[in-house]
Amino acid sequence: MTEQETRAGFVAVIGAPNAGKSTLVNALVGQKVAIVSPKAQTTRSRLMGIAIHDKSQILLVDTPGIFQPRRRLDRAMVAAAWTGAQDADLVLLVIDSSQEVRDELLEGLEERNHPLFLALNKIDLVKKEKLLALSAALTDRLNPDKVFMISATQGDGVPDLKQALADAMPEGPWLYPEDEVSDATDRMIAAELTREQIVNQLHQELPYATAIETETWEDRPDGSTMIRQQILVERDSQKAIVIGKGGRRLKAIGAAAREEIAQHLGRPVHLFLHVKVNPRWDEDRSLYREIGLEWAD
What we know:
By secondary structure, the chain is of the alpha/beta class. Helices cover 36% and strands 23% of the residues.
């Protein structure tokens, strides 16, 4: 393909927490690149998924949900989302059509310099009349270039959205190899896969007071990889919850994470987890770098 035949560009996928952004990014890419959880604020960093359609390469920046920040980590996450929107060729706003729309999200998009696509997600959960009223209200306020009604989990409307994104990308050479699906390192994805298990297995028992730090990573001569990860929590009571009675919960988290990481890497994985209490882990600059966030003042 010559340079004139191809297209490539960045799409910032933004929205409120739990709008379904990561599920949509995975659906557009065609495989799992972002962790998904029924709990809000699962995505922390700007993770790029790379989707290909015809001669277009669509670089999807899955941003943290936009909400009212309370602590440094929250501020860094919200800053990452808005920076992603500013740096993109196109903004894709994902709205959970079954929930009330956050005003702070819409305010930030009224004075924009980028094309805007609006995706009303979770249409399988909403009556048609409410959906049409929501579409009309948001169109009137934001004047988007295109509106799509989708269900990211069911796949409804996703092919039409992908085609439109591909057509909207600027002409130019592809920026990543054809077989690459994400810009995240294996180390970062492995940490995220472990965190996904913590979020999904502990449900309401543990707040978002955990982080994963990779201590060692060794690719061994036998073709396997040995990974040691540290689960950081803020209090002793949280450590007890993660470990579980007789260590059973930590063992279950490790087994499920190991399976996911091995599938991602395509080779056997030896995963060793331990839990450390650090009340101020969210004040550690190096940890922000590791999870792909900028330090927020």
